[in-house]
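worker-3 :: picked GHMP kinase, N-terminal domain protein
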Amino acid sequence: MIITKTPLRISFIGGGTDLPAYYENGYGAVVSTTINKYIYITLNKRFDDTIRLSYSQTENVDHVEDLKHDIAKACLKMAGITGGVEITSIADIPSGTGLGSSSSFTVGLLNALYTYQGERLSSEELAEKASHIEIDILHHPIGKQDQYAAAFGGVNYFSFERHGDVTRDKIKLSDYDIRNMDRKFMMFYTGIRRSADGILAKQSEETHNKLSVLDFMRNQANTMRNYLVTKGFDESFADMLDEAWKKKRTITSGITNGEIDTLYQKALEAGAKGGKLLGAGGGGFILLYCDEQYQDQVRQALGLKEVDFELSTYGSRVVYFE
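worker-3 :: tokens ->
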């Protein structure tokens, strides 16, 4: 049996500039972190040649081509496994909530499958193969930031070059800054689940009309990276989140709505200093920067489910192999 553990991610700034429609005309940049919420993949050899796949549904098929789960099917085919395995996926947080779960699933499954085949892939190889499956093979209208965050882990600056190459710059924070982030970040579930594909497809279509906004967000990713490296984590981080969110929400319809805008404004009025909706938009989680003395006020004002989290250092790992 093999078990992989792959983190979910929070994208702070630059989301949307990792889409090919943008970076193919220059480059994109994102600052993100992984958190201690995970997707676990278990893989075990079956006694026969069938495939059993369990996620929110359960599939039992004789041939890999019969699988309905497009990502799982593509991963199995890429790894050269046509049958005789049982795969189960367990997630700390449901999909469609803006934390990059689809890409974490892809990275974690590839990690398990290649380990099963006797091959250990590097973080970069996992990220590239996952990106190839989701973007090139399945034609999901997404970018590359989620796959790289899940594979590498930690707080990172990623740049996305014109021809598709990705460069990672690990942001080394002090223990004080990490503790400060863990204390001051709050994350609330809006109760709205959505597919990112539709929003991202619209965003790709609107890219040529929104270049100035996307250029700003890319440049802010550079500013945030440099600020974290030279000055650390403080209230300026909240200002950057707030400014970038106000820009991002103008890119296309569907990123926000009246309910989300009202929630965000309530949080600010209750004492939060900045934040953003995580992921492509439309629902999922709201991330807030809030000093500890105002956090109870924010909780009361929003009345939403809060999810405690901490920053995570590691990317996708094999945690059990027998």
